[in-house]
């Protein structure tokens, strides 16, 4: 693509969609995205209904970790569909999927599948409440745990995220700044005997792609043990992406429960709650309810098996890290050449880009010092130049991103940075 994209067909569809679909989208996060309709995805590329191609760094908000339409996953799911999709009973594939997940994670003993990360989080919180007989939980500024009433927040966590939300549900949680073990210790000293769980993204990819500071997770683990609190890692983004065993493997600290999704199934909608048998077995006795008509469907199980087989047989982690590192450096370099303070930080497979000082940010509050608004405009503009990326700054890299994508991306970003709109941003 040499000129900027024209979205004539997308515009017609957008207008049509808005008549029958509120906002023209089926998930509110998409309201902020450029109104583009896609025809197909293959590998690291997207093709829209006007014939424009994009290098994709959104990956459907993360699930397409292997790239779009990975053949082995498509074949496994297609074969599963042909066997009938859901039985209201077990299939052998579920057992295989659970065994694969447990084996890959290393620390967990049992697993339950659900459809979405949101549901897996709710199952984890319920289980923690049941196990401890306590009702509250600790959550952290800037962390995302789904769209339901007890976890959806705005302004980093200080306010409800939606009209119609029962804000009273947020009083069941205590909000604490992340990456600050003393702040957590203080909160637990004040409220510990009412706290069932501490839930966090162990690497805060949703907000600034921030890693835990040295020793933080170990101290969190210790504090949870001292207070008899269930530690939940929400690894819906980081799971299977930053390492086969997720944050527990990368940082050497195991939670009691953890939620997974996205990278686990090559794009198929499925999530998991994994954990220690002592906790998880309470679902099995029926004491704690976790249900869902479509949980563990044959397609979901087949997609998990096919994806985890690929991740084990041909681990893409090094390749993805190299691509991400080269892309991060290339973006910073382009920013310098254009006199624009383009900065990047975080793990190369899911890093954060913004405008602002190159100093690393380590929590939600310091992130607010960056020029997130101007960057968001720039990210939206990148779509016109053939780079599909989230406005909130995350760049996801997949196993399908290669040299050509890197070259194309940097060339397209270079042209976008020459756009007069960037100067006036
Ligand atoms: N937890 C985290 C850390 C997430 O990033 C997300 C979604 N991005 C969720 C939970 C919710 O997952 P889902 O959108 O599948 O409900």
From TrEMBL:
<keyword id="KW-0663">Pyridoxal phosphate</keyword>
<dbReference type="InterPro" id="IPR015422">
    <property type="entry name" value="PyrdxlP-dep_Trfase_small"/>
</dbReference>
<protein>
    <submittedName>
        <fullName>Glutamate-1-semialdehyde 2,1-aminomutase</fullName>
    </submittedName>
</protein>
<comment type="similarity">
    <text>Belongs to the class-III pyridoxal-phosphate-dependent aminotransferase family.</text>
</comment>
<dbReference type="InterPro" id="IPR015424">
    <property type="entry name" value="PyrdxlP-dep_Trfase"/>
</dbReference>
<dbReference type="InterPro" id="IPR049704">
    <property type="entry name" value="Aminotrans_3_PPA_site"/>
</dbReference>
<dbReference type="InterPro" id="IPR005814">
    <property type="entry name" value="Aminotrans_3"/>
</dbReference>
<dbReference type="Pfam" id="PF00202">
    <property type="entry name" value="Aminotran_3"/>
</dbReference>
<dbReference type="InterPro" id="IPR015421">
    <property type="entry name" value="PyrdxlP-dep_Trfase_major"/>
</dbReference>
């Amino acid at each position: 693509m040499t000129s900027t994209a024209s979205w004539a067909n997308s515009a017609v569809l957008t207008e049509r969609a808005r008549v029958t679909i509120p906002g023209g989208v089926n998930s509110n996060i998409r309201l902020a995205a450029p109104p583009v309709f896609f025809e197909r995805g293959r590998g690291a590329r997207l093709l829209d209904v006007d014939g424009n191609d994009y290098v994709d760094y959104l990956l459907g908000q993360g699930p397409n970790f292997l790239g779009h339409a990975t053949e082995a996953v498509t074949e496994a799911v297609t074969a599963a569909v042909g066997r009938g999709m859901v039985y209201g009973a077990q299939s052998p594939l579920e057992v295989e999927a659970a065994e694969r997940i447990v084996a890959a994670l290393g620390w967990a003993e049992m697993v339950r599948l659900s459809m979405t990360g949101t549901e897996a989080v709710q199952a984890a919180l319920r289980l923690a409440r049941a196990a401890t007989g306590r009702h509250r939980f600790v959550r952290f500024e800037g962390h995302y745990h789904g769209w339901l009433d007890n976890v959806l927040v705005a302004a980093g966590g200080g306010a409800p995220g939606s009209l119609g939300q029962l804000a009273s549900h947020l009083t069941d949680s205590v909000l604490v700044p992340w990456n600050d073990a003393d702040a957590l210790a203080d909160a637990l000293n004040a409220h510990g005997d009412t706290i069932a769980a501490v839930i966090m993204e162990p690497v805060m990819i949703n907000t600034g792609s921030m890693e835990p500071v040295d020793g933080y997770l170990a101290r969190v683990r210790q504090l949870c043990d001292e207070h008899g609190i269930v530690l939940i890692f929400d690894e819906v983004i980081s799971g299977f992406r930053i390492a086969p065993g997720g944050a527990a493997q990368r940082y050497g600290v195991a939670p009691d429960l953890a939620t997974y999704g996205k990278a686990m199934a090559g794009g198929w909608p499925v999530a998991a709650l994994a954990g220690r048998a002592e906790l998880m077995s309470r679902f099995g006795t029926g004491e704690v309810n976790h249900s869902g008509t479509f949980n563990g469907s044959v397609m979901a199980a087949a997609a998990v098996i096919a994806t985890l087989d690929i991740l084990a047989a041909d681990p893409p982690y090094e390749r993805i890290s190299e691509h991400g590192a080269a892309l991060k450096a290339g973006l910073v370099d382009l920013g310098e050449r254009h006199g624009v303070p383009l900065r990047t930080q975080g793990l190369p497979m899911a890093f954060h880009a913004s405008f602002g000082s190159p100093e690393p940010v380590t929590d939600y509050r310091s992130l607010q010092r960056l020029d997130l608004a101007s960057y968001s405009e720039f990210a939206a503009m990148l779509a016109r130049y053939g780079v599909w990326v989230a406005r909130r700054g995350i760049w996801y890299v997949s196993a399908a991103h290669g040299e050509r994508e890197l070259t194309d991306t940097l060339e397209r970003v270079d042209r976008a940075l020459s756009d007069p709109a960037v100067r006036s941003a």
